[in-house]
Design goal:
The structure holds two protein chains of two kinds. Chain A has three helices and 23 strands. Chain A is mostly beta strands. Chain B has seven helices and no strands. Chain B has helices at residues 2-20, 61-69, 73-79, 82-86, 97-100, 115-125, 127-134. The chains are: A mainly beta, B mainly alpha.
């Protein structure tokens, strides 16, 4: 259904889209220009500094995307995204580095989100190599230590105490979305590990998040990696919820390569819903939706065989066993071909849930080719649902991508995506992209 | 509260103690970048017999890299900018990883194509997989329906 809008143009018409693009881009462009100017000046200032005086390596990556698409409620939107990374290493000739990354979005088409301008600072931290084997980071940063996969505003330190032992600790305020229902005050923890380099590693980790009682988290974990012989790898992790006093999850896999061309992987995982879904901020994971009495065990494996230096094949199977509901099986196979400047793949997978509305078959074929400075991709994906969703039993997506190196460090490209799925009779998206990298070395 | 304070003090003590410790056997990399240019999916164990060899990008790497990353994230940093990790593991994001990497179809990417319909099945089969990324953060758009 089309409706007239105050601009006088018929909503949904090309003229209306262009009119709104011009109106909104005028406002958005002011904000964009201010931010771009600030970021560009900062980058240029760093790059223009005499590198031999400050002895630093400076690099920056800029990724710009504009997506043209229509929403489910027939709005023609055109969000512009700018991702900017700045890296300065070896500041003043010392092992001191600064890393900054963030993104912004400005809406150039119809209004579709709560704000027509959005920003996010992914990380911004100072990295200090204090002594060989020690490191201290200060600022907004990511922490990946055992049970902790977190983003904090604080500090993070790591040190190898010897060839056999090491420690890591972190603390600060957790970074959360503004729309989150839970706003925590503090997040801290650490990890200690013992290792025999090249043979085994065992670590103990801890995390505590506090604030409102509803968002308290206290987790403990153990992680292991063992390579008894060169062809066998065993690794995994177990996590314990100290708040609810129960094991959240266990996840382990063992990989065996009896010969160079063959790799056998067996995997096991257990998730206890009562202890795993702690402190969610999304209703989809609340106890009213996720039955806390449920426990799921996953067991399966992968067989991967290298047929030739360019061709590989794999088969995989996974069984889901539930304590309360019926089980499910996931299985399929893949062929991969790759050589310099060319890649292709074929895959077919089946999800066989316990009920008819939990079954689908997924097929994919892709190919990519580089010709000099140009690259092209064709990616086809089809999912057949055993039971219709919104009156449709199939979802098909075709992606064609082209990119071209317009300069030594600059690439421009366009992605065209067409889809027919349960939510859209036909959906067409256009993504324009421009990638630029600049650097200056000491 | 007292227990919390004790744990905080212990954590800070470990932190500052580790900073003051001398390391005779430096294991953390002091190089910022891998000295030799690598091809895609490097098998690190071909050259390294120590902890560096744990990072081989075998075919199942996309499904097991979390074990290596939570043990040796500093080794990841030798080859990858942190923004590469943030593309799939952000606190706040609006673009799917596959939208940024449309020119790399060989990479494992979650949510390719129309995932809105498929997630209704995957979310019931294995909600834990969704929770890792969307349980506490990066779920503003999910809330449009999951109020």
């Amino acid at each position: 259904m089309w409706k007239n809008n105050p601009s006088g143009f018929r909503r949904g018409s090309t003229a209306a889209f262009v009119h709104q693009f011009e109106e909104r881009s005028g406002l958005a462009s002011m904000k964009i220009m201010r931010l771009f100017l600030t970021a560009t000046l900062a980058a240029l200032a760093l790059c223009s500094l005499p590198s031999d005086v400050l002895a630093l390596d400076v690099s920056a990556d800029s990724r710009t995307y504009v997506i043209f698409r229509e929403t489910a409620d027939e709005k023609s939107i055109a969000p512009l995204y700018e991702y900017l990374d700045l890296n300065a290493e070896g500041i003043a000739g010392k092992d001191v580095s600064l890393y900054v990354s963030g993104w912004l979005r400005a809406d150039l088409g119809e209004e579709w989100a709560e704000d027509d301008f959005e920003t996010s600072l992914s990380y911004a931290y100072l990295d200090l190599g204090l002594r060989p084997g020690t490191k201290l980071s200060l600022g907004r940063l990511y922490v990946f230590e055992g049970v902790a996969s977190e983003q904090v505003d604080g500090l993070y330190a790591k040190a190898d105490l010897s060839q056999w032992f090491g420690v890591a600790a972190f603390g600060g305020t957790p970074v959360e979305e503004e729309s989150g229902d839970i706003q925590s005050d503090t997040l801290y923890g650490g990890r200690v590990y013992h290792q025999w380099p090249g043979l085994y590693s065992i670590g103990l980790s801890y995390l505590k998040q506090s604030g409102d009682s509803a968002d308290a988290r206290e987790e403990q974990g153990i992680d292991v990696w063992v390579r008894p012989v060169s062809m066998v790898d065993l690794q995994g992790q177990s996590a314990y919820n100290a708040e609810s006093s129960g094991w959240m999850s266990h996840s382990y896999n063992v990989a065996v390569s009896p010969v160079n061309s063959l790799r056998l992987i067996a995997a096991y995982a257990m998730t206890d819903y009562e202890h795993y879904f702690a402190a969610p901020t999304l209703s989809a994971f609340s106890p009213t939706v996720i039955d806390p009495r449920e426990e799921v065990t996953e067991a399966g494996g992968i067989v991967d065989y290298t047929l030739s230096p360019s061709l590989g094949a794999s088969l995989e199977y996974k069984n889901y066993h539930y304590e309360l509901k019926g089980g499910a099986d996931y299985y399929g196979g893949e062929l991969r071909y790759s050589r310099t400047g060319y890649a292709a793949g074929l895959s077919a997978h089946r999800m066989d849930g316990g009920e008819k509305d939990l079954k689908y078959s997924r097929y994919r074929a892709y190919a990519s080719k580089r010709l000099g400075k140009a690259g092209m991709v064709l990616d086809l994906l089809n999912v057949d649902y055993d039971e219709e969703i919104l009156g449709t039993s199939n979802a098909f997506t075709a992606l064609a991508a082209l990119d071209y190196e317009v300069a030594e460090r600059a690439t421009a490209g366009i992605d065209l995506e067409y889809s027919e799925n349960p939510n859209f009779d036909s959906e067409f998206k256009v993504l324009l992209k421009f990638l630029y990298r600049f650097s200056k070395g000491a | 509260m007292k227990r919390d304070r004790i744990i905080k003090i212990l954590t800070l003590g470990v932190l500052f103690g580790s900073l003051a410790a001398f390391s005779a056997y430096a294991q953390l990399p002091t190089v910022k970048r891998h000295p030799i240019e690598l091809t895609e999916n490097p098998i690190c164990s071909q050259c390294h017999a120590d902890k560096w060899g744990e990072m081989s990008h075998t075919p199942e790497w996309d499904r097991t890299h979390q074990f290596s990353a939570t043990r040796n994230s500093q080794v990841c940093a030798v080859c990858h900018r942190e923004s590469f990790c943030a593309d799939c593991h952000p606190t706040k994001e609006e673009l799917k990883p596959s939208q940024k990497y449309g020119s790399s179809p060989e990479r494992f990417m979650p949510h390719r194509g129309d995932y809105l319909a498929q997630h209704k099945i995957d979310g019931r089969i294995n909600p834990a997989a969704c929770f890792k990324c969307h349980g506490r953060n990066n779920n503003a758009r999910c809330k449009a329906c999951h109020k």
